[in-house]
From TrEMBL:
InterPro entries: SusD-like_N, SusD_RagB_dom, TPR-like_helical_dom_sf. Coiled coil: none annotated. The keyword Membrane applies. GO terms for cellular component: cell outer membrane. Its main location: membrane. It comes from Spirosoma agri. Belongs to the SusD family. It is found in: Cell outer membrane. This is RagB/SusD family nutrient uptake outer membrane protein. PROSITE patterns: PROKAR_LIPOPROTEIN (PS51257). Residues 302-516 form the RagB/SusD domain.
Length: 522
């Protein structure tokens, strides 16, 4: 789906303004009005396309998603975000502030659009194009509140920033996590009702909403509803697993493929910042840095995730670069580097024996992440890269997740199951990975499958968290979070580390956030 950049959209100034609280987007009292705009489907869809864009999502998907979802879960090693590696995260953490700000900014956009489109309908605007747009906003708002509830637990719920801003009362409390989850679910139900059965590639449909609902139900241990919603997606026949697993994350031609239910939409552009996918340099092996592509390997696979792959699991080479990994199409070259150029002349080889200045790589875990690394640049045989930006979408919900949700929801907290349909769902994922089919499975089997299937996609921390403190503690303390020169095991995991702290700057501005949460629903 081609998305118009934010600056090209004639969106009300409300979407670009903010009040003193970062998590409240304040609508402007001037600018574009419902009377002179949003008079046709193109204008409305141009506005909602902003919600899919990397621009508002940037500060979450660039680094915060990795630090929270994969470093904290034990899937990634890093020398940068060590507080997430060692569970010493403070409320002053840059990643916490970035994710919080991004999430509430997206919610602010959705809030203003919902109100604007409803006003347009009341003034006689066509429901044919306004109702689906309102449903898109509900999906985004519900999904983001789901992320907030999983990340911080109790949190503010803002639905009318204008009323809040005009009232002058910015002392907004945290609401109970169960209420934030309930609000997110209600939003997704509205999206399910209002979204179309199908739409242009990359646009949300009612099956996107059903899929996200199934994930929320699973998180809440509502297995019956999780299974029902996952089954509705499966039975629709609209989705399938793609054969090119690595290509899902590295090829622009595979954006919005048959496996994607919801993706952040990127374009190959470096301006405005966030239009392109910014994961490339943080994951790219240093020996793939070229004049076209930055690569500084801020995040690398942990030793623990490398141990998790079963023998013969194709996802390992699709997700991880290790000694012997090759790509004959990539032929990076550098100025004034004859030994490096000779080593790479016949194709890229990941080599931990070759001196680094001559093309080798010798990092802390002797591996690099292949997911979302598009390559060294078009001139060197890969996808096009513009410095730090690639054109690959970031997938937030895909069909493999729906299949594994269905399998786990069928297990429903039991010891094991050999249910035929649940096995079929699980084994579809395993078969693509080149693994033998299972005849029965346990919860630990599912958690293993989810870990390797979604490695480096920012999700595994939430799989650990939803097991409850006792099991989460056991899982975390078993992990080797160190390097090849020294193991590191967590000994300080306590219950207060199950959720991240509210950003300290937000509490300074709104002291209510530092108090105990209160009910949202009376």
């Amino acid at each position: 789906m081609k998305l118009k950049p934010l600056y090209a959209l004639m969106i009300p100034a409300a979407l670009l303004s903010a009040c003193s609280k970062e998590y409240i987007e304040r609508p402007s009292l001037s600018g574009t009005t419902t009377g002179n705009y949003y008079t046709n489907a193109e204008e409305v869809r141009a506005a909602t396309s902003t919600l899919y864009s990397g621009l508002p999502w940037r500060n979450y998907e660039s680094r915060a998603q990795d630090a929270i979802g994969d470093v904290m879960s034990g899937n990634m090693f890093t020398y940068t975000d060590v507080e997430y590696l060692n569970f010493t995260v403070s409320s002053a953490s840059e990643r916490i502030g970035a994710a919080w700000g991004a999430f509430y900014k997206i919610i602010g956009y959705a809030n203003v659009m919902i109100k604007t489109f409803e006003e347009k309908k009341a003034a006689g605007g066509s429901a044919a194009y306004l109702d689906p747009a309102i449903a898109e906003c509900h999906f985004i708002r519900g999904t983001v509140y789901f992320y907030i509830a999983r990340t911080w637990g109790a949190a503010p719920i803002i639905t009318d920033p204008g009323e809040t801003a005009l009232s002058g009362n910015f002392n907004i409390p945290r609401y109970l996590q169960k209420d934030v989850l309930r609000f997110a679910l209600e939003e997704l139900k509205l999206a399910e009702t209002g979204l179309p059965e199908s739409d242009a590639a990359g646009r949300l449909t009612k099956y996107s909403a059903k899929g996200m609902m199934s994930k929320l139900y699973l998180y809440s241990k509502d297995y019956a509803n999780a299974k029902t919603k996952a089954d509705e997606v499966i039975s629709s026949g609209r989705y399938s697993l793609v054969s090119d697993y690595n290509g899902m994350f590295t090829k622009m031609s595979m954006n919005n493929n048959s496996e994607s239910l919801f993706s952040i939409q990127h374009q190959l552009a470096s301006d405005p910042w966030g239009t392109g996918n910014l994961k490339n340099p943080d994951r790219g092996a240093g020996n793939l840095r070229t004049a076209e592509a930055d690569a500084w390997e801020m995040y690398v696979p942990s030793l623990d995730i490398l141990k998790e792959y079963e023998f013969g699991d194709l996802r390992r080479k699709w997700s991880v670069m290790e000694h012997g990994w090759t790509n004959p199409n990539w032929k990076p070259q550098r100025a004034n580097a004859p030994k490096y150029n000779a080593f790479m002349a016949n194709g890229f080889k990941y080599d931990t024996l070759q001196p680094t200045e001559d093309g080798g790589n010798l990092n802390a875990t002797r591996s690099n992440i292949a997911k979302y690394f598009a390559g060294p640049g078009k001139s060197f045989g890969s996808e096009a890269v513009l410095g730090q930006s690639s054109g690959n979408n970031v997938v937030l919900l895909r069909y493999a997740d729906i299949l594994l949700i269905y399998a786990e929801a069928t297990l429903a907290g039991g010891q094991s199951t050999s249910d035929a349909k649940a096995l079929d769902a699980l084994n579809k994922v395993r078969t693509r990975a080149g693994l033998t089919a299972k005849t029965a499975f346990t919860l630990d089997d599912i958690l293993h499958e989810r870990r390797v299937e979604f490695a480096f996609e920012g999700d595994y921390w939430y799989d650990i968290q939803r097991q409850g403190f006792a099991k989460a503690k056991t899982m975390i303390e078993k992990q080797n979070r160190g390097t090849v020169t020294g193991a590191n095991y967590i000994t300080n995991f306590t219950e207060d580390k199950m959720y991240l702290p509210i950003p300290s700057g937000e509490i300074v501005q709104d002291p209510e956030l530092g108090k105990e949460p209160v009910p949202y629903y009376k």
